[in-house]
Write a structure and sequence with these properties.
Layout lengths: L3 E6 L6 H16 L3 E6 L23 H11 L1 E5 H6 L11 E4 L1 H8 L4 E5 L1
Parallel strand pairs: 1-2, 1-5, 2-3, 3-4
Helix pairs in contact: 1-2
Length: about 120
Amino acid sequence: MAKKLVIKVTAGADAPERCSQAFTVAAVAVASGVEVSLWLTGESSWFALPGRAAEFELPHAAPLPDLVDSVLAGGRITLCTQCAARREITERDVLQGVRIAGAQVFVSEATADGAQALVY
C-alpha cells in the first residue's frame, strides 16, 4: 500500500458522481490511516469555500461537508493556485486548514517515494 495518497479532483457539481467518489476515497483513506493530500482543481475549487460543500447533493452518497471535515481532520486539502485565481478566491476566503498551492507542489507530492496519485 502507498504511504501517501495524492488525489486530484477536477469535478464539482458538473460531475457529481466523480466528485463524490474522489472525496469518498480521500475520507476512507484518511480513516484507514493513509496520509492523504486532496487537491481541488477546476469546478471542485468551489468546495474550498465555507458553505459550498453543503450545497452539493448526490443521492446515496455521504454528505460532502462530512467528507471534507474528515479529510481536513486527518489529511490535507489544497486549492490549485491558478484555479483559485480564475475564481477570484484568496487565502482569506477558504476554509480553515485549506492551503493554496501550485503545480510544482502537486508534482512534488505526486512523485514522492511511496506516493500514489489518483485523478478524478
